[in-house]
Amino acid sequence: MAATTENATETKVSQRYFGRAMKRVEDPRLIKGIATYVDDLKLPGVLHAEFVRSPHANAKIKSIKTDDASKLSGVIGIFTGADVNDKVGTIPCAAPLPGGKSPDHTVLAGARAYFVGHPVAVVVAETRAIARDAQDLVEVDYEPLPAVVDPEKALEEGSPLTHPELGTNVAFTWSVSGGDVEAAFKEADKVLKIRIVHPRLTPMAMEPRGCAASWHAGESSLTFWSSTQIPHYLRTLLPGLIRIPENKLRVVAPEVGGGFGSKLNLYPEEVVVGHLAIRLDRPVKWIEGRRENAAATIHGRDQIGNHEIAVRKDGTLLAIRTKIIADIGSYCQLLTPAIPTGTGNMHCGCYKLKAVRVDITGVHTNKMSTDAYRGAGRPEAAYLIERIMDLVADELSLDPVQVRLKNMPESTEFPLNTATGLVYDSGNYQAALEKAQELAEWPKLLQERDAARDAGRLFGIGVSTYVEICALGPSKTMPAGGWEWGCVRIEISGKVTVITGTTPHGQGQETSFAQIAADRLGVPIEDIVVLHGDTATAHYGRDTYGSRATALGGTAIVMSIDKIIEKAKTLATALLNSTPEKVEFNDGKFFVSGEAKNALGWGQLASEAYIAKNLPPGFEPGLEASSFFEPPNCTFPFGTHIVAVEVDRDTGQVKILKYVAVDDCGKQVNPLLVAGQVQGGIAQSIGAALMEKTVYDENGQLLTGEFMDYAIPRATDIPDFVLGSTETPSPSNPLGVKGVGEAGTIGATPAIANAVVDALSPLGIRHLDLPFTPERVWRAIQGNGGQS
Amino acid sequence: MIPAAFDYVRPTTLDEALGLLAKYGEDAKVLAGGHSLIPAMKLRLSQPKVVVDIGRLGDLRSISEQDGKIAIGALTTHYEIESSDLLRHSCPLLPEVAGKIGDVQVRNKGTIGGSCAHADPAGDWPAAMLALDAEFEIAGPRGSRTVAAKDFFVDMLTSALESGEILKLIQVPMTAKTAAYVKFAQKASGFAIAGVAAVVDKARKGVAVAVTGVAAKAYRAAGTESSLGGLELSETTIATAAQKAADGVDPLSDIHASAEFRAHLARVLAKRALELAAGRG
Fold first, then answer.
1. Residue A56: φ, ψ to 5°
2. What is the DSSP letter of B25?
3. How confident is the model at residue A786, as a pLDDT?
4. 3-state secondary structure of B199
5. SS (H, E, C) B217-233
């Protein structure tokens, strides 16, 4: 909380910008195409890298012949695991679980390739075209081996092993539990059982990965650019890997064309490029192609859950007991094991469960690694719980909305202790549900369904009441610090520079942080610039993921502003020849009470502070402050989504007829940004619900390696949204903000799923796994089963 | 993402183009709209040494009435067909098909000739060409020849065009309004998992039903057609006939649709296309 003492004059904060739906300052450069992405960087003498990748899911690498490729004019060098692996470190996992087993993740394949797309060698050439031609000429002699593809079969006796040296395909086991699970099941009137699958998804950011590195031999320093969400983490992790000191490395995230978690990672290609720039003493650039992106950028989700639910006849949810198999692929990347633990920790959803137990087994298979993808474990949790609620309602012949209300906490019960040990900060689930029903014209919708069913149409309504955890988070629970850093500087001219340690890549903080700062300082928003993404400028930070930037980054900025105001007040008091109790600050000006005409503005104060001729004794020159905000808790956004669908009985096609979302992300800095995040999240959920699935065949071949085969929603697939919100401030930060970047992806898929199952329920169908592709729906209707 | 190196030539006359193809033989590929060739080149599935760009052969881009039929130049774009008033009046099946191809960008560049020559089993044009009994005029080193639609689509990605030949013109009959194209698109690519073109001739009491996307090449649903020959078209007769829409073919199977589902869709779409077509007159 900003420091205010009893003696300090009240800081008047106007609300001119906070809460205003303003267009983004980022957009003109993006729309005009004058923003700088990694591929736009002009580095004189730059060399281009292309990676040779395994076409096999599992294979011994017997030899790599590079003679023909090396002879191509313009090829500078070709490097294999033998050339590189012993000179750089291995890719770390920042969130290993106790007892977990994972192999060393060398930057290039060593003796074996473990997934289709596994980088085996790298070609460096004068042009990208030459590198690509040389790539074709590298001859790798593979001995293919049986691939481990099905995670359940991978756990069976006699299964081939992804990593034989580990002796098992089990990467880790983990569990969370609370309450007396046995007692709850004994007490139950009924025990339901359900198997729920959440398929693997491919993030598909519009801009694939890419990076560039430039070695400055004179200073023995490296500048590293990457289309990344985490320049600060890279600055901490890369030094150990490429063997240079941390304070000789500058990492820059230029314009990034979407991350969604897929760029919240440290990738082998990044290490290789950094290493080669130093080794070759020439700048090196690598730009990923879409096929590479689909194969070798992290995937999301991929969980198989078996659930037992203990309930009372009246719909009270007593306990959930879950076993999850998480198919994590061949390696643990940065946060791979942590993702399913999020699913475990959020197992209570919006409900007062008495007891819970979740056991998770992470399984190594011959696939690309899974890691954080928008929602990162929470979409899986919300999805399974909201399917369970509908199942409970169906089993007990109760109304699905009433069952939810029956198990929800009152808004007065927060902070709420949940059975998994998480403490939810604040919530009013009933208000969001009520508002959603109002916006959906609930009684009319029910009538519409009745009429449709009378006419033999498959019309369904689905509700999802979700809660999620974000604004990560208290450092004790994070792998390497969960605080955030913010610096504010009043320049001599009175202009304001805000520097954040978060790394926006589409979230819009250049606008929203300026809104916060403009209000708090009382300056026009045009006088503020927000800098980010360059470790030379934003010295420290914990970057952007987990919907944390506004809650944590915004607070760090507020803390810094309050320090500056306090300091400026001291200076103003001296310059005004007054005493502290008599000096006020309002609307960007300091003045003696009752003498507003004699006010001092920021320009004057900054000028005095830096030119330093009239400073009171002991006063440090300058008007700048930086702060680290350590959050006391995460935040817990929530909401209700209501969806109406119709299913074409003959083709299995699902059409969304109505989409209502009421989301509560606490206080909203900029409602336009909030709406954008919600819409984008829902769009990705529509993809997950209706069309997306990463498919490997029984030989581990990736069948969805292109946009020809991996369907993501287009504008024509997205219905008109009816969006509303409630505002339940978070006590976890002084701004009262919760975070909204991922909420749409979490609340939406369950609502759509529940609607589709509801539409099919007159045919006796009680559950269907994602995605609801036409064939899957059609087969369910035919009675051939829609389970995966 | 980067094609293998290639030379590029752009002839200004058809004869010049044919001369270049004769000269370069297997090393050359013809470029029309480019929306099949260029992606294939970027993936290096196709690596021509010489790309012969026929985009400037203006004579091959036209839609006109000739002797009671409609002649469409091979380089006519899907968009030009979609927006042609002449076709809307005289052969409305074609604008309807054109409007369902790919997306706006693809329709602006892609050509009917290029698409037919490519003979993608999931392309939309083959269904319409078969249903209309279109005729394909081909230019080659030994002069011109005409091939009927039923002989033009030979196999998956194989047309009747021989090495050194260029498709010049497609002739279609003028039809009544009673025609329709119904498509079930693969969600990712936009190609047809099943597409059915139906042309109803109420005067002669006959129908033509052609199916694309379901088998290795588009086909006429002979069973459906003969089932309806000479009969009044009603909901019942159509429903019964449509059941035969997948008879005698080996449906394709992939991650997007199984053979069983494709066959089912052929039957469902045949019914819908026939009902739609019949209802338009």
1. -110, 150
2. G
3. 47
4. strand
5. CCEECHHHHHHHCCCCC
Å between B1 CA and nearest CA of chain A = 6
Minimal CA separation from B56 to chain A, in Å: 28
Q: What is the ipTM of this complex?
A: 0.95
In angstroms, the separation between the Cα of residue A713 and the nearest Cα of chain B is 9
Question: How far, in Å, CA of A366 to CA of A649, rounded?
Answer: 38
Q: How far out from the chain centre does Cα B69 lie?
A: 18
CB-based contact (8 Å) between A703 and chain B?
A: yes
User: Any chain A CB within 8 A of the CB of B255?
Assistant: yes
| Rounded (10°) angle between helices A743-760 and A671-690 | 40
Question: What's the start-to-end Cα distance of chain A, in Å?
Answer: 50
Whole-number Å distance between alpha carbons of A190 and A398:
14
| CB within 8 Å: A704 and B5 | no
- Residue in A289, A707, A709 closest to B1 by CB: A289
- What are the tokens at A668? 């909203």
Residue numbers of chain A with a pLDDT score lower than 70: 1-14, 784-788
- The pLDDT, as a whole number, for residue B202 is 87
Sheet with A221-226, strands from edge to edge, namely A75-80, A119-125, A47-53, A284-287, A210-216, A221-226, A249-252
Residue A368: count other Cβ atoms within 10 Å of its Cβ: 27
Q: What is the rounded CA–CA span in Å between residue A123 and residue A109?
A: 14
* Nearest-neighbour CA in chain B from A692: distance (Å): 9
Q: Which of A132, A691, A695 sits opposite B187 (nearest CB)?
A: A691
Distance, CA of A741 to CA of A312 (rounded, Å):
36
* DSSP annotation string for A379-420: HHHHHHHHHHHHHHHHHHT--HHHHHHHHPPPGGG-SEE-TT
CB contact (8 A) between residue A775 and residue B2: no
Which residues on chain A are in Cβ contact (under 8 Å) with B261? 774-775, 778-779
pLDDT in tens, A688-737: 999 999 999 999 999 999 999 999 999 999 999 999 999 999 999 999 99
* pLDDT tens by residue, A401-453: 999 999 999 999 999 999 999 999 999 999 999 999 999 999 999 999 999 99
Instruction: Give Cα A533 to chain centroid, integer Å.
Output: 17
Neighbours of A293 (CB within 10 A): 21
How many C-alpha atoms does A141 have within 13 Å on its Cβ side? 5
Name the band, by pLDDT with cuts 50, 70 and 90, for residue B281.
confident
Q: Which residue stretches of A456-525 are H helix? A: 509-521
Q: Taking Cα atoms as reference points, which of A106, A115, A70, A66 lies closest to residue A85?
A: A106
Q: pLDDT digits over A7-38, tens only?
A: 344 455 667 899 999 999 999 999 999 999 99
